[in-house]
């Protein structure tokens, strides 16, 4: 029989301690990487922290394709376009030398260009455009202008209105508030609230588009007393409309504007 003498217990092996050569090599590789990332300018600029972050931050692979975010759709109606001339300014011979439809289209086209350049999908629509039926967008703004007849010295400025039948009163009020505030800031024109009529709040497109589309109508000025800014500073007028739309889309801070009291 084999001896039953007990064997001494085995002790677990101790982990190997890196030798001096291994540690030195690791430090050398790190320092070589670090100093390779420096340029003479960055060395003297003392931006070591930025260089360290650049080295330690994972870089995106060049062949990774990112999915673009969907574009927000915006509708811009050029008032009276494709239908009639709208208001007209007559010369001494009784001929129209300026029409509302031309002014509306000039402003609307510039608004579309400005918003498109900012990455939005913008539809330029006619007055009775078939695309308005069930039209869906984050916002739709119809651009018009007021009469060219002289009324009085107070017939100057702009007007903004939303549909009284809108489903989302809060958002509709915020759109009109944004349009009013930003347009006034950019153009310097005053808000002529006293002449907002049911023709604006019951504008035909309001009942044609998708009910979830927030919409507004703006008359950017009076063709008589505001003619100069409307025709000679059209870019400024269009920028006022653009900024109003951007204020709404970007949820910029603005106090809501109460729905207007109608005049006969």
Q: Your description of this structure?
A:
The chain has helices at 20-37, 40-45, 48-56, 100-117, 169-187, 198-201, 227-232, 234-249; strands at residues 73-78, 88-90, 96-99, 121-125, 139-146, 159-161, 215-222. With 264 residues, it is of the alpha/beta class. The strands form two sheets. A five-stranded mixed beta sheet has the order 4-1-5-7-6, covered by helices on one side. A two-stranded antiparallel sheet has the order 2-3. A hairpin with a 5-residue loop joins strand 2 and strand 3. Helix 5 runs antiparallel to helix 8. It is globular and about 50 Å long. The termini are far apart.
Based on the model shown, name its key terms.
alpha/beta, five-stranded mixed beta sheet, 8 helices, globular, disordered N terminus
Strand and helix layout:
Blueprint: H1 20-37, H2 40-45, H3 48-56, E1 73-78, E2 88-90, E3 96-99, H4 100-117, E4 121-125, E5 139-146, E6 159-161, H5 169-187, H6 198-201, E7 215-222, H7 227-232, H8 234-249
Parallel strand pairs: 1-4, 1-5, 5-7
Antiparallel strand pairs: 2-3, 6-7
A few lines on this structure:
The chain has 264 residues and is of the alpha/beta class.
- Overall mean pLDDT stands at 80
State the separation between the terminal residues, measured CA to CA. Answer: 123 Å
Note the main sheet. 5 strands, mixed
* Broad structural category: alpha/beta
Beta-strand portion reads 5-15%
């Amino acid at each position: 029989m084999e001896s039953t003498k007990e064997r001494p217990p085995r002790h677990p092996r101790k982990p190997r301690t890196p030798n001096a050569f291994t540690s030195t090599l690791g430090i050398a590789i790190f320092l070589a990487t670090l100093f390779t990332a420096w340029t003479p300018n960055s060395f003297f600029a003392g931006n070591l922290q930025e260089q360290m972050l650049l080295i330690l931050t994972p870089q995106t692979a060049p062949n990774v394709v990112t999915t673009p975010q969907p574009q927000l759709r915006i509708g811009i109606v050029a008032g009276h376009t494709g239908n009639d001339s709208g208001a007209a300014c007559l010369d001494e011979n009784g001929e129209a030398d300026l029409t509302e439809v031309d002014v509306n289209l000039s402003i609307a086209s510039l608004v579309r260009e400005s918003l498109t350049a900012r990455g939005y999908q913008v539809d330029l629509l006619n007055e009775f455009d078939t695309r308005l039926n069930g039209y869906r967008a984050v916002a739709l703004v119809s651009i018009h202008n007021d009469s060219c007849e002289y009324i009085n010295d107070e017939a100057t400025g702009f007007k903004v209105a939303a549909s009284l039948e809108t489903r989302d009163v809060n958002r509709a009020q915020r759109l009109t508030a944004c349009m009013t505030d930003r347009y006034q800031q950019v153009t310097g024109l005053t808000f002529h609230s006293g002449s907002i009529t049911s023709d604006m709040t019951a504008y035909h497109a309001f009942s044609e588009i998708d009910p979830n589309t927030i919409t507004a109508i703006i008359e950017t000025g009076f063709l008589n007393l505001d003619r100069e800014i409307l025709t000679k500073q059209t870019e400024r007028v269009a920028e006022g409309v653009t900024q109003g739309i951007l204020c709404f889309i970007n949820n910029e801070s603005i106090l809501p504007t109460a729905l207007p009291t109608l005049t006969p």
